[in-house]
Task: structure prediction
Amino acid sequence: MQFRDLKYQYQVLKEDIDAAMLKVASDCNFISGKQVKELEEELAEYVGAKHCISCANGTDALSLAMMAWGIKEGDAVFVPDFTFFSTGEIVSFAGATPVFVDVDLDTFNISIDSLEKKIKDTIEEGKLTPKAIIPVDLFGLPADYDSVRKIADKYNLLVLEDGAQGFGGMIGNRRACSFGDISTTSFFPAKPLGCYGDGGAVFTDDDAMAALLRSICVHGKGTMKYDNVRIGLNSRLDTMQAAILAVKLRAFKDYEVADINKVADRYTELLAGVVKTPAVPGGFYSSWAQYTIQLDSREERDGLQAELKKNDIPSMVYYPKPMHKQQAFENLSFNDADYANTIQLCDTVLSLPIHPYLTAEDMDKVVEEIKQYKSVKRK
Result:
């Protein structure tokens, strides 16, 4: 059993993917080939954004936004405490200070109450200037952008959507990666839409911002790559990855997102009353980057993971350590009491195998092992 079965996906899409890769190889247009522009146009249309600027990876996508906005030393950027390290890392890389915010126990996404408290505390302390919020679409579920936007408008803050795990998710009729002033995603292989290496993209509706982001992506170019008008990065999506993503995007749109939701719905039905399953609020639609259950304690979580491993069932813990406890941020001061939900989740979450091609037989095996483990623990 695979946690995310990329091997099977390749077999399903093999003919088209192989043809796409061979086309790039035969044309020898490996950098900035026409497939890159075509993919950007398809991604922008799918998301519902005016512009898509592809780049080398999801972390670069976030950094491009920081650079375009001029985020710098003395600025505060508000980041969920329960997320992958890069969300906070790019703030520090820009010279600014990440201010970590607790999350909601049911959705795993940024807590609106905690967010406003942290903004107020930062303003009252007076050492940093609040500049931006980075909500994360964790595990495939978009953050509560209606509430985030109200807070952002109230305090005149920018919103950077980290949609690395949320691509394909929706709120109402709007898709993930359309909610931020700038939105980003990652095409890391295990993401909802993944390539065969690293890749990322930035989305915006602002023409001037799109032009600036394109410049930063290629060494701060002006009219051409040897005319450099600003300091930038070398961050491009190569043509091979764009060609692969174009094939996978078609499958993603045609059936993969719908099929992975069927898998998630079945998990939720079978695990009802056994463990705490992920919540999807009304009007929200997840792309299910992960299907994450909650156990009663770290001991129970670790015990279940060990039992699943003995039965050749892969599982993952996203994430075992809060952002505010990472050694890289030890120069900042935090109060554990502000992050009670994050600390609880780090001790109790466990992500199960999930992908559009997961069979009912494999799901039944996963669920049966969980039920057996829980029944033994109750005795």
